[in-house]
Write a structure and sequence with these properties.
This protein has 22 helices and 10 strands. The protein has 747 residues and is α+β, with helices and mostly antiparallel strands.
Length: 747
């Protein structure tokens, strides 16, 4: 349906330039005239070469007769001449052959010159009776068209023959030119007397071949031109006929009655054929029983009988199939004539015309394929006939066996003669009728009024397209229109569900003072509930039950299991995070090496703003697969540690006192829990202390607080002359020479 609708739009756009007459287009671009001009051009190009080659030859009737007589004398004494000339056996064989071929060529040329087809003008077709009536009807027009098709097919054969003769003529010209060049080179080199006389005869034979090919081309070209002229006359007669063509009800009734009479005959013929087939099958079964388990390929009396009866069954099976096809084609022909009558009298609607045109195109293609299949079967049967004939010609078989095999071959020939030859006439006639219906439908499409196309046909086409059934089930059917409405409602459901869920979220936050995390969770749940509800409403509006999509279950299961597993993994993880609430919006977390503030908890992912100000989007499954540190889940306090190292000369108690003074004096350090200082260790470079204190994350930054305290500690240590040690290393240098002397002295 959509294809038809598209065709209608294209046709509306092309209305100003479309041509309404297929015959006018055919006559305007005349294929046969172009082929005729091409062949005439090819002949014209060769004319000068032919005249030059045959300039020295005498080709009148008297000259031909004289030369035939001379060749007879040469042949009679050729044996003595060849002995006198000293020919080798090989040269003798060539000379004899050339004389024989030359004599045949002259005789053939003489016959062609005296032939009526050569000496007289080509006979034109008698077309005086075709369409030569005062008021031609549709049958007369069809008869004229059939004659045009018949002559055109003959013209195709003539074109092939002419082209092959022209190719032969070119080869003959080349051969003559090469032989002439060879003789000329020998004469110029002073070797003419040394050449065998056969070479001169070969050149004469090549020139005679040129003359034969030329006269054959001329004769065929005259017949070809006559047929071209006949086709042009037939087409002009057809064009004139179209202006006063009639198709009365009487002609339709007569055609339908004629077809019905044929259908009655075919029905009787079918009954006879079925009885013959039943009888042949019964006879074959008896032969099969008699044959038993014997090999049918081994020729015996019983196997030969079985082969003959099998061929007879095959014949009647083909006959029944043929009659059945002919009955169907005749009923089809009746419908074609009724439709042609409607088209002729403009009683068909636009939609009907489109359907007739499309259906006829499809049917023409089917019939052409059927005809090709028949020809293939015919070729196979012909091969079987050859095999059967070879079996019949086998030496040593009895006359009974030979008679059975011959009978099988006869039945196979009858298949070709009675069945396939009948198909060769039946199917082309059916194709012709379909082609006429298609052409007349196209003509009517071109003549449709623009208003009808837009207001009636286009409207009906769109409605028919929307009512096109895509699939159906028990108690329901899905059409294009229903599916379109369902898709529109389905798409609208996203916007409606999103708007409704956001409205509920805003109400929860503004009116009920709900947390952002809870509001987000409710929003997503409401979104999916609304979305599923709208989808179900859409399906109910168009009367499509959920069972209509049952066939999609397998595909969706595969998609969920493979292509969408990560999406659903994150989606389910999101709901777990929302309901288990390991953290909430504005919590400070550390997950998978990412630290920052939770900004949004979505159904598929969560957004965290890091301390550097970047937004990091993590799939929700990360929060289930990795450990999550929530620094603000129970409270907003965080313990910080600050490490300090002093020199070994410092008083450790005094250092502890100074450090407590610094930490207690900072405004961002919490008083509860109270900060404290630990003398951690005796380090490599000095005494190591650690300050433990708490800060509130919402008000202070741990990095900023620790930086402030370091500045304060550096100032206090400078005031009280407490040194912060540099890294130190003590290196002892040992003199090995002195050690050896001391060891010797001791010894």
């Amino acid at each position: 349906m959509f294809k038809k609708f598209l065709y209608s739009i294209i046709l509306l756009l092309l209305i100003p330039t479309i041509s309404f007459s297929a015959e006018t287009q055919e006559l305007a671009a005349d294929y046969v005239t172009r082929i005729q001009n091409e062949i005439s051009s090819d002949i014209g190009k060769l004319r000068q070469s032919i005249e030059n080659e045959l300039a020295d030859m005498k080709l009148t009737s008297s000259d031909i007769k004289q030369r035939i007589s001379e060749l007879a004398e040469l042949t009679a004494k050729s044996s003595d001449d060849m002995s006198a000339w000293g020919y080798t056996p090989e040269q003798r064989e060539v000379h004899t052959r050339i004389l024989s071929e030359l004599s045949v060529a002259y005789a053939a040329y003489s016959a062609l010159v005296n032939s009526p087809m050569t000496t007289q003008a080509a006979v034109s077709l008698d077309i005086s009776s075709l369409g030569n009536v005062a008021s031609p009807d549709i049958n007369t027009s069809d008869a004229l068209r059939r004659e045009i098709m018949k002559v055109s097919r003959g013209l195709d054969v003539q074109v092939f023959y002419l082209q092959s003769r022209l190719s032969k003529l070119r080869l003959d010209l080349n051969e003559a030119a090469n032989l002439q060049k060879k003789l000329k080179e020998a004469q110029e080199g002073g070797q003419a007397l040394e050449l065998p006389r056969t070479n001169v005869l070969e050149l004469e034979g090549a020139r005679m071949n040129v003359a034969l090919s030329r006269i054959q081309v001329r004769a065929q070209k005259r017949a070809f031109d006559a047929n071209v002229t006949a086709i042009q006359r037939l087409r002009r007669r057809l064009a004139d006929m179209q202006e006063k063509l009639s198709f009365p009800q009487e002609v339709l009734d007569a055609n339908l009655e004629k077809i019905q009479t044929r259908l009655n005959e075919l029905t009787e013929e079918m009954n006879t054929a079925r009885k013959a087939l039943d009888s042949a099958n019964a006879s074959l079964m008896r032969a099969r029983t008699t044959l038993g388990s014997a090999d049918v390929n081994v020729l015996t009396t019983t196997s030969a009988t079985y082969i003959a009866r099998s061929a007879r069954v095959n014949y009647w099976e083909h006959m029944v199939s043929l009659i059945d096809d002919e009955i169907a084609l005749n009923r089809e022909a009746q419908e074609i004539w009724r439709n042609r009558y409607k088209l002729f009298h403009d009683n068909a609607s636009g939609e009907e015309i489109w359907k007739l045109r499309d259906d006829s195109e499809t049917r023409i293609a089917e019939l052409q394929r059927q005809l090709e299949g028949i020809r293939t079967m015919e070729s196979e049967i012909l091969k079987q006939i050859e095999t059967t004939q070879a079996q019949a010609a086998t030496e040593g078989i009895s006359s009974t066996i030979q008679q059975s095999i011959t009978q099988a071959a006869d039945n196979q020939r009858k298949v070709v003669a009675d069945i396939f030859n009948r198909y060769e006439s039946l199917i082309p006639n059916a194709i012709f009728l379909q082609q006429r219906l298609n052409s007349e439908a196209n003509d009517n499409l071109g003549a449709l009024r623009l208003a009808e196309k837009v207001s009636s046909f286009s409207k009906d086409t769109v409605i028919a397209f929307l009512n096109t059934e895509l699939w159906q089930g028990e108690g329901y059917s899905v059409t294009v229109g229903k599916l379109t409405i369902a898709i529109l409602v389905f798409l609208s459901s996203f916007f409606l569900s999103s708007w409704g869920s956001h409205w509920i979220k805003r109400r929860m936050i503004n009116r009920f003072k709900a947390s952002v995390t809870a509001a987000n969770a409710v929003q997503r749940i409401v979104f999916y509930i609304l979305w599923v509800t709208f989808v179900l409403i859409a399906l109910n509006i168009v009367k499509i039950p959920l069972t209509a999509f049952a066939f999609m279950g397998g595909a969706m299961a595969v998609g969920l299991g493979f292509g969408m597993q990560n999406i659903f993994n994150n989606l389910i993880s999101g709901f777990i995070v929302i309901f288990s609430r390991p953290f909430k919006v504005n919590d400070i977390v550390d997950v998978a090496g990412v630290q920052g503030v939770v900004e949004d908890i979505g159904s598929r992912s969560t957004t965290i703003k890091t301390w550097d100000g970047f937004d990091v989007v993590l799939p929700n499954r990360y929060f289930l697969e990795n450990s999550v540190t929530n620094w603000t889940k129970s409270d907003l306090r965080k313990r910080e540690v600050l490490k300090v190292s002093v020199s070994y000369d410092a008083d450790s108690r005094e250092v502890e006192k100074l450090l407590l003074e610094v930490v207690n004096g900072h405004s961002s350090v919490l008083k509860n829990p109270a900060p404290f200082v630990i003398f951690k260790n005796f380090g490599d470079d000095g005494l190591e202390f650690e300050i433990y204190y708490w800060i509130e994350l919402r008000k202070s930054s741990g990095i900023k607080v620790s930086s402030d305290m370091r500045h304060h500690i550096a100032a206090i240590f400078k005031r009280d002359r407490v040194d912060i040690p540099y890294p130190q290393r003590v290196i002892h240098i040992v003199n090995h020479d002195e050690d050896e002397k001391n060891n010797e002295a001791k010894a």
